[in-house]
What we know:
Layout: E1 3-13, E2 19-29, E3 33-37, H1 44-51, E4 59-64, E5 67-68, H2 73-78, E6 80-83, H3 95-105, H4 112-121, H5 137-149, E7 155-159, H6 167-182, E8 186-190, H7 194-200, E9 203-208, E10 211-217, H8 218-225, E11 228-234, E12 250-252, E13 258-263, H9 272-281, E14 286-293, H10 296-312
Parallel strand pairs: 3-8, 3-9, 6-7, 7-8
Antiparallel strand pairs: 1-2, 1-4, 4-5, 9-10, 11-13, 11-14, 12-13
Amino acid sequence: MASIIEIQNLNKTYDSGFQALKHIDLDIHQGEIFALLGPNGAGKTTLISIICGIVNPTSGMVRADGYDILSEYRQARSKIGLVPQELSTDAFETVWATVNFSRGLFGKAPNPEHIEKVLRDLSLWEKRDSKIMMLSGGMKRRVMIAKALSHEPKILFLDEPTAGVDVELRREMWQMVRGLREQGVTIILTTHYIEEAEEMADRIGVINKGELMLVEGKTSLMQKLGKKELRLALREPLDAVPADLNDHSLALSEDGYELVYSFDSQQEHTGISELLRKLGEQGIDYKDLRTRESSLEDIFVNLVHSNDDTVAG
C-alpha cells in the first residue's frame, strides 16, 4: 500500500535538553484513518507539529505526499490540513469569510463551489453568514475542520477533534471523518477517547515518552494483545483463591463473590474446562458465568504500564 507520509529516524530535542521524540520511524498509508494514542506529554503534538511544519526536527526525514517537509515546505504544507486542539479563529468574521480566507492563504484560486460543499458536508451551510462568536463550541470545531479542508488537502490531521464535544456531536463527526476517508483523504487522529480510536481507526500507533511503541492494524492488535476474561459469580464468597487453583490466572473480587479468569482466546486450549472441573472438585459453586473481551483501553493501559516498568527497571 502506498505511503502518503514517510518518517525516518525522526528526533526532536528542545534547547532545555528534553528529548520529545526518539528515533521515530513511521509510514502512514494513503486513504487510511490512523489513530495516534499516548498519554499527555508522550510526543503526539510534537510529532504532528513537525509534520505540519510548525516545529523543526532535530534530525531525521519526513515526506508528505512525496515532498520533503523542510526542503519542499510549500508543496508539502499544501497537501496537509490541520485541525488543532485549541479553538482559534477570528470571532468577528462570518463562517464563509473565515473558510474562504483560509483557502487563499494557501495560494489557491477562489472556488465557491468547493467552499459550499465543505460547509454543507459539515452541516455549516445554514450558518455561513453567522459570525464565529455566535456559534456553539461544537459548531466552532466544525469551522476549524472546514478551514483545514478549504484548500483541498490530501492529508488531514485532527488533534483531539472531539475534546469537549457532546456524545451526539462526536458520533456525527465520526461519520463525517469516514466520509472524508471515502473521498480519499488520509486522516491522522490523536485522541484521549479510546473508544474513538476503537470505533474509527484502521491502524493504531502508541507513543509514550517520545518513543513509538508499536504500530498495528486495529483488528490484529486486538487479536495479538487482547485477552478474554471469564467471570464467575459465586454462590458463596471466598476468603482467598484456593491454593490448588494457583496455577490458573485467577483474581478474586474484593467482596469474594466473583472469580475472574484471564485467558488467551487465540490459544487452542483456553484452560476453561480444566478450571471448571477443579472448581467442582473444590466444592466451589457458581450461579452465573460470562466472558468479556479486552477493550483497546485495556490494551493501551497495559502497554504504557509495561513500558514504564521497563524504563524504571
